[in-house]
## 1
Amino acid sequence: MSCISLAAATMLTACASDASNASLSPAERQLRQRNAHFNTTVLEGAVVGGLLGAGIGMLAGHNATSAALGGVSGLAAGTGLAYAVASRTQAQQQTEDTYQKAITEAQQSVATATEDAAGSQAIADQANTELSSLDAQYKAHQIDKAQYANAVQKYNKDATALNGLAQKYAQQAQQMQTYATYRGNDAQMAANAAAMKQKADTLKSNEERLVANLSQVPSDVSGQAPAA
């Protein structure tokens, strides 16, 4: 099995595990699976694209520098998104059909991010309520340390997923803005870039809220919870 396939299989296994985890809310399940899907597709696309680009660069320039530059172009192409271009020339030479595809893909990406931003709000709100309740129950000796620690572990994993999605959507927002600039400050793509950045900021804000709540967990409990 190749390194790429092994990594993808590992992520898919984690995704399947989350799908069967009855303790997860619909929002938690959706965001964890989305993050796992992003990690799988971006890893495979970027590695394949990077290797292809590096190979083309080596053939064109016959040296390691050309290979490295080709690899950068390949990484952008490897994402498979029409708005993820590697250069101004590439953006300007796109056909009208490819341009429309880029706009459609950007709109779809923003729609997905909108769903995830709403989910991140639900998770942060849920964590605030549940962790507060668990803390009170723990201090009243109504639950034991292991029960509290299990919830902490779950929310640690949620925080990791939220952070990962926030970073990925921020990257997509930057790709959209770069594309808009390359296309002469294209208004449609610039609007999508602004909307995507807003969703990424919402995810990051909710991840920070979640982490702040987790920081209030007693150290004897948080120290027992397995790493996310």
## 2
Amino acid sequence: MKKILLPLITLSLLSCSSEDTLEDVNIQNNEIQTKNDLLQRGGGGFVNTPTDPQNKVWQIIDYPWQIYGFYSSFLNKHMYSSSGHPSMIPKTQPGQSWYFLDRALGATDGEGNGNGSMISSWFNTNTQDLVLTTNPNEFTGQNGWEKVNDLGKSFIGNEPGTFPIYRYFRNETKSHFYTRDKNELGDGKNGFVYEGIAFYLKEPAPYEYRIHDGTFYQDKKTNSVYVVMEGQLRMIENTEVLTRVFDFRNKRPLNMPATYINKIDDIEIIQGSRGPMIQANARLSEDVNTGMRYFSDPNGTRGNLKIIPSMLFDIYHFNDGSLVRTTGTNNSRLQELKKTY
């Protein structure tokens, strides 16, 4: 599968320490009053959609299961990859810069829903030839061939929107060549021998990439920071809330930040369910008698205290340095914080 890359930034933050003192705090489910206008518009201008298993957040991206073609005028060879970057091309010697992106062949059935055969990539370490095939048995008894990866399924030729990919081989350079335009080489020329139709592809379509809970974004226009929580995109009210509730402290041994923020041009690129703002009265707590941890997330005039399952504490990147020690948080009606995706 083509790797989906997102630009990352980190926040340089002062780490906050808290004294290990016991506060006898009884957390109530509707303890804090906030502004009515935030309740009415969900905070941050978002509609307050209820937490629901059907909630989801996604981004429309380029279809990830494409096949890209590269060419090296130095080696006079063609290479193919599911990545659009030459660094991913298999090789037996240095020199990825010799290859430049020449073409996009088309898209495979990367999700595997169709009935076509799997297209796999094979590289010969002796000749530096690369073959795309739906029949790996063609290499039986031949030396030097190693499988690179699977690129996704081929489509059936009579499916709407499909087109053939034509395969050629030039013995002089020990190089295979693939094209979707048979007029390019016809039945063979310039030393290339036509080997037939290799498989069928389609034009790439926009792809809905679903975003995991616990992912952070910053809108470059407003500098506002958001987190995906329970399938909703939620604005975080300010930096104080961000650094107190969530963990951005550098971690040893690599001194890397505990949490990354994806910086994007416009938050509206991120589509799907919107939730209420995480406000200044949000806090984390831990019951010293039971060891259970809680996220107090009041929305408007209604409290919203939830149990944090141990596995989700790290998934949501909560800050254990900000836990308020409590006793007596016993309420069988409390819901658990959920991970929807």
## 3
Amino acid sequence: MGERLRYADYVGNMARLAVEIANGDAPGEERGEMLRRHRVAEPDAEPDAEALAALVPALRAAVEAAAQGGPLEPVNVLLERYPPVIRVDGHDGPGTAHMHFAPNGEDPVTWLGRNCAAALAHVLCGDPAVTLGRCQAVGCGRFYVDDSRNRTRRFCSNACASRTTVAAYRARRKAAG
């Protein structure tokens, strides 16, 4: 019997996927594995380019709204364009049933849209296990999933955190004389 997937983990994985796409990152290893497990092809530049180009701005607006705790409209627009098809699936083997927001094997852009829309709706409605944020470093607008213990993360990466800390230290030294 396989290990049961926690619902919060599934929402978190889909939120990470939404953030990755909204940030314009190249597909990561986690995304590739997730698509393979759900029998979904990686969106191809040729046939999926137009559909992906339509998804990205709506997804980015929805991620921003979820990170800020509102407004609701960008997430609702995404939900209208890519309505989730909720189903229970056990593709990981006996005893591993968990909820899905899109059918396995669906076309990649629709699958991504449905899953990301549903996950962002959960985040926006206050799912306590998943929090999104926007990097507080000057000049960086990247989003992140805050999975820190007390949900107080402020930066998308250690590089941004370090750059901000160094800049603050230099400003204090300069002000001190």
## 4
Amino acid sequence: MCIHRRCWCWTSLRSASTRRAATRSSRASTGDSTPTMLVLFVFINSLAGGAAIVQTRRSGVYARALAAPVTAGTLVLGETAAYLALALVQSALIVGIGALVFGVSWGNPLAAGLLIAVWALIGTGAGVLSGAVFRTPEQASAIGPAVGIGLGMLGGCMRPLALVPGWLRTAGHAVPHAWAVDSWTVLLSQNGGVTDILRNLIILSAFAAALLTLASFGLRRQLTGAAPGTRS
């Protein structure tokens, strides 16, 4: 009887230890992947959200707004601000759930905040540009996420670029995702701060400026083309 009881206790202790180890491993894995999921899904959702701008264009809402004393630049600025707010809210949800539910540490608060803000600007530029380029909401909803997934794969969101050939690693850094993932790696794996990712932040800011400029020009052109003679 005593032997059986000791065996049962030993087995229970080993099972409990195994479960705790599995839980720690699962949380560590989640902590490693959560920042890349932020990079991937904020961008994808922003691209898909361009469908709303396309639908607004097609429904004539912009044309009616431009009949009032409202300039095309004001409408573009309003759409940009709305998309930026959505990207920031998505980022805050991912950060909050990651920290509270999965115990994810996001590293240096200032550096993480700057990185999140710059990535939200990149997502905003991509989303507004999507709304200016696609002709139908269905195109934006179908093609946008596919493009986002492809860029995410190229940029290392699904497989670390350290594990791919050198030429593919170089090609991956042609998209902003790779620079964002590199920055999160420095913050979380190397306990880096703002100075450690400053170069990456500058590069990401350049991506953001380019996308926002293209998006602003593209949407403004769509608005003034749809309503000739309007103020820009």
